[in-house]
Amino acid sequence: MNIPFVRYNNLGFITSSALILIACISLLFKGLNLGQEFTGGIALQLKYEQKAELPKIRSSLSKIENVDFKVNIFGSDNEVKITFQSDSELNITVDTVKNQLEEDNYLGEVVMEATIFPQIGEELRDKGGIAILVAMLVILVYIIFRFQIKFGYGAITALFHDVLIILGIFSVFGLDFDLSVLAAILAIVGYSLNDSIVVSDRIRENFLDENKKGSSEVLINDSLNQVFARTIITSFTTLLVLISLLVAGGEDLRNFSLALAIGVVIGSYSSIFIVVKVLLATNLSKKDMEKPKNEPEESYSLD
Amino acid sequence: MNQFKNWQIGLIYSVLIIGIIFAMPNFYPTKPALQVAFGASSSVPNTNIIQSVTSELESKSIEFEKIELDENSLKIIFDDVENQLAARRTLAEYSDGEFIIALNSEPSTPEWLRSLGGKPVNLGLDLAGGIHFLLEVDTERYSEERLSSEGASLVEEFLSRNINASYVSTGSEMKLSFSNTNNLVQAREYLDQNNFITTGSKYAISQNGNTINLQYTNEYLDEIIDYAVEQNLVALRNRVNELGVSEPIVQRQGTSRIVVELPGVQDSTSAKKIIGKTANLEFRLQARPDEIFLRKEQFSFKSEPGKVFLEKVIILTGDNVTNAQSGFDENGRPQVNINLDIDGGKAMQNATKDNIGRNLGVLLIEEKTKTYFDENDNVIQAKEPVKQVISNANIKDTLGTSFRITGLGSSQEASELALLLRAGALAAPMTFVEEQTIGPSLGEENIEKGINSVIIGFILVFIFMLIRYRLFGLSANIALMSNLILVTAIMSAVGATLTLPGIAGIVLTVGMAVDANVLIFARISEELKANVDPQNAIRNGFSKAFSTIMDANITTLLVALILYAIGTGPIKGFAVTLSIGIVTSIFTAILVTRSLVNFIYGYRRVEELKI
Questions:
Q1: Pairwise CA distance, residues A254 & A259, whole Å
Q2: Both B97 and B148 in a single domain?
Q3: pLDDT at B504
Q4: What are the pLDDT digits (tens) for B425-453?
Q5: What is the reported pLDDT for A172?
Q6: Which residues pair with B384 in a beta bridge?
Q7: Are the C-beta atoms of B137 and B228 separated by less than 8 Å?
């Protein structure tokens, strides 16, 4: 089996460019639906014996003025999550909400309550961004050290590509972007890299092999075919696990698993199309693989 | 032939066996327990407490399995929840509400395992239920207040040297004004001489006409903020201990934040009240003997017998105390140095200037909570403040923002007093920036969900690998299982905390650990296609895949470590299991799989290999 990946390269490039363009536009104009960890705010999770009656909760909460409550089913239909923003001026707390619901005899069991102040969120956002950038930098240095700078360009481009597209998907579909999704994106940085390195490793090996002749395109295409089965199988097993997380992991891990699952697919795709596109664009050749020869050490004798 | 040497096999399986031993404590069920603390002021509990509690429980025919004293609390382990709740009610009545009793669960790890250091993994709040607070120390306000109170003491210091000065402090800057150049030169000389701290200079000094501007240097700011946060940490620990929670976490996070986690606690309002309370110190003059009863109150001493009358007027409270440290006076006798903020200094000055020769008493106010339980196990709490005198010293001079208490019996007494003064007040103001309460049912649900998804994920991968790679797949699956055991063992042994995102991290390593094996197997099949004989194909497959596996895992590990270093909360939990999982997966996927493959194929002639 020999799939002419390199020939389809431009198709991949066009698809990716289009996706990134959409992602950027959506991120610019629509932005991300940031979770409460980032924006600050108050959340209350309630559990009822029977199916929760959202209208009842909403009408009870409408008696509290000046606050825009979001009341949603969370996980199963007997659990409800109420979220809202408040500040010291408004001074509406979790207790205000609990008291109001209790007054109207519809409180249920309080499963979780959380109050997060905005400054924490801002810091988290900054830190998350810094984490991704630091991670990329460290990785770039490692790749330059272990491989060659052109592979570094390839891997980093693939990383940007993957992260942007996941962010874009979360933006376009308005999915909740919370702290766990940030963690997932950072994990994807690691995973996508894993893929890029496996591909790069094989390309390097084939370029270094003196018995293998042919143009860069041919060698790269051979390499891709050699690792293709592994890429598919690994992605598949990881997806199997992520699907089990999606199905059984509950509401708290849903977006996390979703982000990872998208990341795994895109990460595998980018290791084949994006890394290779960059390597070809930088005119990677057998010459690049030659390590600078060390000068023979001069020897001195002391006698 | 593909064979490991005996010592290699020995080493690999020793690691696995140790792993199994340390993972084992997680499979023993936990038992209901009570943690009984005796409150700060009660006398140190001794073995009599165990006896009296034992006989009290036995008289009510409440069965328990074990009772033991650790540090300063009593732990009682029960066989069932009914006895646990009955014992709680009994002991609350027995102690007249004095005991601080917390429901707890205790792992039933057998003795031999425990003596090896085996313990179950710590569960994070999202799995165990409880309250999480994040508090922020207002470092800016703290340093401003400190600078301004230092201004007052500097002016006092100058006066004692016959230098006339006045000061104004504006936020982070203090302006000292002098009436003439002579005064200014003298003052500058004094400042320059005293402008040293271990890491450099304390103030950045600039001069402008007849004024000197002082600002704290960054080094000094870092130093005092660090000190203040540490001080607050101590005070918070004391307060949290009052709650009688088992295994609370009070931890510094970053430069100016403190995390408080109270597993098992559900009542956030009262927890917040205790953690956030301030001002439990009062400074009052000792009443004159002829003072009428309306204007005085009698208090007993905390650490010695006897009582004393103090005036009802409160000069200042613990709110105004910024620091207290024990030390020695000129004659080598123990003393306590106290610093007050600017308002406190003024109040103290006004109160003491006309009262030199009288005594100044310091009252410590502790809120005693008596806790009872009714028939339905609802908590009934009665609160009463207990006020005791911790110091009653003679006023030798007009006191300002900084003064000292001398005439203390020993340096131990001095450091205890300093601790009480400090613990009473927070060194720097704090605000709650995050609070979260997780109900116990949510915790249990999260554990269940986490474990289920690990099991389902594992089974899916297991089946797939078996179908795709048969005997090789079986080896990989056993390696995968060893990986799960090792991750659990390391998490338990090093005392890492498992959270829901942490479980997600484990699930992800399951997926990624397979990758190493897939890489190896793909290589072996390539070798076979190139007509290499089976034994060499296996050998080459492992060795050729090795560098790829290492590169891929090292980079992912780097990412995980960065996540750990920069991330907080859920991200950290995820990073911990991911890092551990990556390291163990390298071991299991390469060495354990290899040893199994060797075991299957290494000791015979293999004509044909299917992979």
A1: 9
A2: no
A3: 79
A4: 566 778 888 888 888 778 888 888 888 88
A5: 95
A6: B368
A7: yes
A64/chain B closest Cα distance in angstroms: 21
Cβ-in-10-Å burial (0-12, 13-18, 19+) of A259 comes to buried
Domains and their CATH numbers in chain A:
5-34+120-288 (1.20.1640.10), 41-116 (3.30.70.2860)
| Mean pLDDT split into 10-residue runs, chain A, 303 residues | 84 93 95 84 88 89 86 86 80 85 86 80 76 81 86 91 95 89 80 86 89 87 91 90 87 88 93 90 83 48 45
Residue B83 tokens read as 């006895």
Same domain, yes or no: B407 and B508:
no
Chain A contact for B273, CB < 8 A? no
- Residue B130 covered by a domain: no
Q: Taking CB atoms and an 8 Å limit, are A194 and B552 in contact across chains?
A: yes
Determine the distance in angstroms separating the CA of B128 from the nearest CA of chain A, rounded to an integer. Answer: 12
On whether both B145 and B87 belong to a single domain, the answer is no
Q: State pLDDT tens for residues B65-83.
A: 888 887 667 888 898 888 8
Q: What is the ipTM of this complex?
A: 0.84
* Token pair for B71: 């540090």
Closest CA to A151 of A267, A269, A271: A271
One-letter amino acid at B509 equals T
Closest listed residue to residue B388, CA positions, set B485, B297, B489, B460: B297
Residue range(s) defining the domain that contains residue B575: 6-25+441-601
Handedness of CA A24, A26, A28, A32 (dihedral sign): negative
Residue B514 touches partner A, C-beta closer than 8 Å: yes
**B538/B520 Cα distance (integer angstroms):** 9
Type of residue found at B353: K
pTM over 0.80: no
| Positive/negative CA dihedral, A184, A185, A189, A191 | positive
